[in-house]
Amino acid sequence: MNNHEIDYRIIGEEMQYVEIELDPNETAVAEAGSFMMMDDGIQMSTIFGDGSNSGPNTNFFGKILSAGKRVLTGESLFMTTYTNMAQGKKHVSFASPYPGKIIALDLKRLGGRITCQKDSFLCAAKGVSIGIEFQRKLGTGLFGGEGFIMQKLEGDGMAFVHAGGHVLERELMPGEVLKIDTGCIVAFTQTIQYDIQFVGGIKNTLFGGEGVFFATLRGPGKVWIQTLPISRLAGRILAYGTYKRKEEGSILGSLGNLLDGDGR
Q1: What does the alpha-carbon distance between residue 42 and residue 83 come to, in Å, rounded to a whole number?
Q2: Domains along the chain?
Q3: H/E segment holding residue 131
Q4: Following DSSP, what letter does each residue of 42-61 receive, concatenated?
Q5: Is the whole model's pTM more than 0.85, yes or no?
């Protein structure tokens, strides 16, 4: 194996965290802001890019290219490594950013490559490459929304991604097609064919509410689906905080606002 081989366990229900067990000199890499806690004896370091091409024979241009790909997916130029410098086994934990589930992906068993949403990556064994996956078709590029630029995880180690709400793991048979909202896709294997389709009809365009484009996934392969995309959650929170609340179904009306502290 080219990647560090790590053991792990996922703990919790709605707000999960993953605890990674590191043998001496083993290393995990994670996005900034996902760290939760670690044992004494683990050393933290900041690296340029994702650490997958940080060997002695890697030139500076290669490191710049790796870091630049991460910027295109909205991530930082740098990642954090956690290395066990002690004699015995040590543990480091990474927490979910919002309610949902953590998905463990064994890249060796999944063909060595996974495409996932650009904000879903949580952490991985050192050596896993975190890059970008451009969709080739023009329609995808113009109208794909969240599905246009996605992350690509490559290697033969463990990687962990986070999904919002409930997670469905589905196996598509050869030729089987699944139509899905682009934001509800968490990840899929490299054998899945991905495209964007237009929802025709003036009623769908004007009054559909869910947008006029959706993703199509064609098997064979495996896909992970989430019920609560972060964009949908953020949109609801923004709408609730921006506009004056409606007293839907309430007979108290403005009196209800006075009772819960809103006196406007």
Answers
A1: 5
A2: 7-240 (3.60.160.10)
A3: strand 129-134
A4: EEEEEEETTSTT-STT--HH
A5: no
